[in-house]
Amino acid sequence: MIKVGDKLPSTTLMEYSEVEGEGCSIGPNAVDVAKATAGKTIALFALPGAFTPTCSAKHVPGYVEHAEAFKAAGVDEIWCLSVNDAFVMGAWARDQKTDGKVRMLGDGSADFAKATGLTLDLTGRGMGVRSNRYSMLVKDGTVVSLNVEGPGKFEVSDAATLLAQAKA
């Protein structure tokens, strides 16, 4: 499992970007993790699935609500990762009103989750291999704090916890 001091894996995530106007979109677009984190401070959180109860009611809304505070603490971008395709992440971004606050990135084949060792096997619940719920603060591609949830928990990966770490 990835740990504090490790570099993020060299993988590619996918992002579905909106454009002004009729709700048309562009993309999905590839996001090279190494290039996108170079020279930046990223507040990254991951969760098992888009549109799922805890993820939609608590996890994403906390980061949207605290987006300005993260910026004030020196965070360049907030990323939400889920083992979903970019189209689902784009629809969820619209639903959660994340535009300009949280980048919603799809890890469709769970490559990032597998490379970090932070997978969650939900095959028995019909969801396949997903990402565990966690948050991390990343500086220039290196993990500086990591908060991994226990099974079925939502106690340490919330926005308030990561924000306190970003301010420290």
Automatic annotation (TrEMBL):
PROSITE patterns for this protein: THIOREDOXIN_2
PANTHER family according to UniProt: PEROXIREDOXIN, PEROXIREDOXIN-5, MITOCHONDRIAL
Name this polypeptide is given: Glutathione-dependent peroxiredoxin
Statement: the UniProt record of this protein carries the keyword Phosphoprotein: no
Family: Belongs to the peroxiredoxin family. Prx5 subfamily.
Keyword Oxidoreductase (UniProt): yes
Catalytic activity of the protein: a hydroperoxide + 2 glutathione = an alcohol + glutathione disulfide + H2O
Higher taxonomy: Bacteria, Pseudomonadati, Pseudomonadota, Betaproteobacteria, Burkholderiales
Top EC class for this record: oxidoreductase
Highest rank taxon of the organism: Bacteria
Keywords: Antioxidant, Oxidoreductase, Peroxidase, Redox-active center
Gene3D superfamilies, per database record: Glutaredoxin
Residue ranges of every copy of the Thioredoxin domain listed in the record: 2-168
Pfam family, one: Redoxin
Free-text function comment from the UniProt entry: Thiol-specific peroxidase that catalyzes the reduction of hydrogen peroxide and organic hydroperoxides to water and alcohols, respectively. Plays a role in cell protection against oxidative stress by detoxifying peroxides.
EC number per UniProt: 1.11.1.27
InterPro entries registered for this protein in UniProt: PRX5-like (IPR037944), Redoxin (IPR013740), Thioredoxin-like_sf (IPR036249), Thioredoxin_domain (IPR013766)
